[in-house]
Amino acid sequence: MEATKVSSLMYLSPPTTMVIAYFAFGDSLSRMDLGGLAVAAIAVALVAWTPERRAKDAVETAQASAR
After folding, report:
1. Owning domain of residue 16
2. Does pTM top 0.85 for this prediction?
3. Would you give the end-to-end CA distance of the chain in angstroms?
4. How far is residue 62's CA from residue 5's CA, in Å, rounded to a whole number?
5. Looking at residue 28, what is its pLDDT?
């Protein structure tokens, strides 16, 4: 993996810790917490899903529908 993709995964550490604390210790999750989790997940997905991957997915989808 590229360094950018790997380093972007560090942004998921706080949300992951938040979810673990929710299940392990019964911590509460506010709407702000869930919103932050969603923003972090979307941001990491955008970094990980590069234009090259999108193009490859489009080709695979076109080939699958042609069958």
Report:
1. 3-66
2. no
3. 32
4. 27
5. 94
